[in-house]
């Protein structure tokens, strides 16, 4: 048996980290770990708003299952000591092959909100997309993260004059890409929000009071910072679905796409494309990119799985427009697979929101670090030294069943 003095050199306790946020985030080795930390740290209604989807959540679950069907074909005996993660995206180089997707009501997850996410995007060298349903104004985000490449996501409102004003404000504030979302003629049936009684702003009911007792830091932060409201809405009562049905225009058509193409001076992306024919239609109208998306599974349940549409869409539109994909991305290997299948890049939303809930700005940075490490490692194990060198032969989607 070894003697105690022989064991002592091996018993080296890890140094104590004073900062509680840093201690939490050190334990996270994956986006799934950040999700679990977020679940424990935020009230159930807030976590479910981010984590949930529409109806039976089949669309979201199918999307995540599709990413699990990815099979890579590695090549060995290649020098992969250095890899280039950069990617040209809508006229500029992104340091990573993904952008931050637009997310509504971001300050509800953590009051650092959109400015924190945009500043992380600036540090990472990737685009950040501000949502029309954001909780920070167009100008405030530009001021908070002047070095960030900023995109603006637009919902067309019944009041077209107000939508035009938002477009003009985005252009004036230096946003270079406009992302029009087209899959929200009405709000999806998000059952978790209904079950939790989530309203905008959150109402302090008996149920939320009890939940708040379990998450005092979240409520203290909420009650001691600026009021939590949508930055572009005057009236915010009710659920998110109520707001969509009251404000968004269900009569959105191709005429509106053509109007925006003429009114917007920068790049134009259409978000919410779910079949090849619609991709062809909007590309013929002059858009620069399509985002294959089912809104994170939050609109039409049983919608097509976006990653399964990448290859046929790329074949249809060719070089006429860039193709992007979102929904269900929880690992850097998902981003690698998206590019190998033909996408110009991916957009991630929930992944960074889990980080935001887990640790504010530091949690968002942790999410980027995790994804960056996973993308780098996946490329090296594939025998590929550059994201731009990814090709169809590097991956496939295994058949179902």
Could you describe the 3D structure shown?
By secondary structure, this protein is an alpha/beta fold. It has one domain: Aldolase class I (TIM Barrel), CATH 3.20.20. It is 44% helix and 12% strand. It contains 17 helices and twelve strands. The chain has an eight-stranded parallel sheet with strand order 4-11-10-9-8-7-6-5. A two-stranded antiparallel sheet has the order 1-12. A two-stranded antiparallel sheet has the order 2-3. Helix 16 links the parallel strand 10 and strand 11. The protein is globular, with a radius of gyration of 22 Å. The model has no long low-confidence stretch (mean pLDDT 91).
